[in-house]
Write a structure and sequence with these properties.
Layout lengths: L1 H8 L9 E6 L2 E7 L5 H10 L1 H4 L10 H4 L5 H14 L3 E7 L2 E12 L5 E8 L8 H14 L6 E6 L4 H10 L2 E12 L2 E11 L7 H8 L4 E2 L1
Parallel strand pairs: 5-6
Antiparallel strand pairs: 1-2, 1-9, 2-3, 3-4, 4-5, 6-8, 7-8
Helix pairs in contact: 6-7, 6-8
Bound molecules: coenzyme A.
Coenzyme A binds next to helix 3, strand 5, helix 6 and helix 7.
């Protein structure tokens, strides 16, 4: 059905989209496409949070400050927007009470016969531990298994990244195995644990429904 829609309209099912809202202890979490005007908030958070973000992100040329300068955003945004339009990514901004606090990115979308993608995320350290990212990933996963029509979502995490693994654990992602020297992160090829979820494992009511049932979020 989703495939038929994408062929009929020539557009990527489920994109663009606004998703939400879910209330967690820090405020109201929503997802929307990244915007050109996100640059100053994006840069300010990322430069402030270098110590929190750099150990988990792919290596790249230039210093952290250079790579996350406000002037870098228009180019990055254009690449993300183009990927969204081509149907290979869903580049969402995470907002908390309307302010940008992070990104949740569905990437490497492969349609039939795999119907698979990866999910990646980061969040402003000032609101870490409040359930913001768990709410964001729950919403994006339900969206992927619903309107986007995917069958499998994967997340790869360095075994040292306890907070990220906890997000996936709370959402019911299943550990599949260790990818050795998988990704060049923070200056070296690092092992990553692969976690995944297929649509068969999604509870009735979705991941959001289960979070709400468990008292970890409220519909807003
Ligand atoms: C990983 C990250 C996105 C989590 O965001 P968040 O909004 O704080 O996530 P949540 O609050 O929804 O959940 C975090 C969970 O990890 C737990 N946690 C945090 N640090 C932890 C640690 N060192 N050891 C074990 N658990 C930890 C929190 O207590 C919370 O679990 P709880 O709800 O059971 O208490 C955020 O820390 C981040 O941006 N990190 C840097 C970038 C990154 O690692 N991205 C993912 C790459 S795979």
């Amino acid at each position: 059905m989703a495939h038929a829609l994408s062929q009929r309209t020539g557009r990527h099912p489920g994109w663009p989209a606004k998703i939400g809202a879910l209330r967690v202890s820090a405020g109201v979490v929503e997802l929307r496409p990244v915007r050109l005007r996100d640059g100053s908030a994006w840069s300010a958070i990322r430069i402030r949070d270098e110590r929190n973000l750099a150990p988990w992100e792919p290596s790249a040329p230039g210093s952290w400050v250079q790579r996350n300068a406000v002037t870098e955003w228009p180019g990055r945004w254009a690449v993300l927007r183009a990927a969204g339009r081509r149907g290979v990514a869903l580049p969402f901004a995470i907002t908390l009470d309307g302010r940008l606090v992070g990104q949740v990115m569905v990437g490497n979308i492969v349609r039939e016969p795999l119907l698979s993608a990866y999910v990646g995320y980061w969040c402003d350290a000032r609101v870490n531990g409040c359930g913001v990212t768990t709410a964001a990933v729950a919403m994006v996963a339900d969206h992927c298994f619903g309107p986007v029509g995917l069958h499998r979502l994967e997340a790869t995490v360095r075994p040292e990244n306890r907070a990220s693994m906890r997000v996936l654990e709370k959402l019911g992602f299943r550990e599949e195995g260790l990818f050795q020297r998988y990704l060049d992160v923070d200056g070296a090829w690092r092992d990553h644990l692969c976690f995944a979820l297929t649509v068969e494992e999604v509870p009735v009511g979705g991941l959001v429904g289960r979070l709400v049932e468990r008292g970890r979020a409220e519909r807003s």
